[in-house]
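Technical annex, item 7. During the second reporting period the consortium partners agreed on a shared format for inverse folding records so that results from different sites could be compared directly. Each record opens with the tokenized structure and is followed by the designed sequence. A conforming record, contributed by the partner at site C, is shown below for reference.
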């Protein structure tokens, strides 16, 4: 099963970066121009067991993502892990880690393990693309948060 990782330092406090990540609306804000993301179900509290659902479409025309997730681990201002409970993957586990730097900034470290329903050869071929997408997500997060 492929695992990809990315990390980036954001010039904001750990608490600010963590709060941004537990606001599911930030996913909508960071979607690339060609992918429209909508929140279909939002939990009332962000905690272990919280479930959420997203739908994504290509230019608002064709549904490319119908995804249901669940928070399976959560430690305030430290990390949380979400997994897929319904969607395109056979297995999907995404760990979002947060730590303060000596200068008071936040080091954001994401780790994503996945298996598609298409088999291990396809998974390994997709790993570099998924890794680039994860890095791009962190770059977009940094740009958005440091601009605010």
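Designed sequence (site C submission):
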């Amino acid at each position: 099963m492929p695992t990809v990782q990315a990390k980036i330092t954001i010039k904001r406090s750990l608490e600010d970066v963590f709060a941004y990540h537990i606001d599911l609306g930030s996913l909508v804000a960071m979607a690339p121009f060609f992918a429209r993301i909508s929140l279909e179900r939002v939990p009332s509290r962000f905690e272990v067991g919280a479930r959420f659902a997203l739908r994504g479409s290509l230019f608002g025309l064709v549904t490319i993502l119908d995804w249901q997730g669940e928070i399976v681990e959560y430690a305030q201002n430290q990390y949380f892990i979400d997994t897929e409970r319904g969607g395109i993957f056979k297995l999907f586990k995404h760990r979002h880690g947060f730590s303060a730097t000596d200068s008071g900034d936040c080091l954001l470290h994401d780790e994503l393990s996945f298996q598609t329903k298409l088999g291990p050869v396809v998974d390994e071929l997709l790993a570099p693309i998924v890794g680039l997408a994860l890095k791009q997500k962190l770059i977009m997060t940094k740009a958005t948060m440091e601009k605010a």
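Residues 12 and 148 are 10 Å apart (CA to CA). Strands lie at 3-10, 35-41, 51-58, 62-75, 79-86, 89-100, 106-116. All partners now use this format for quarterly exchanges.
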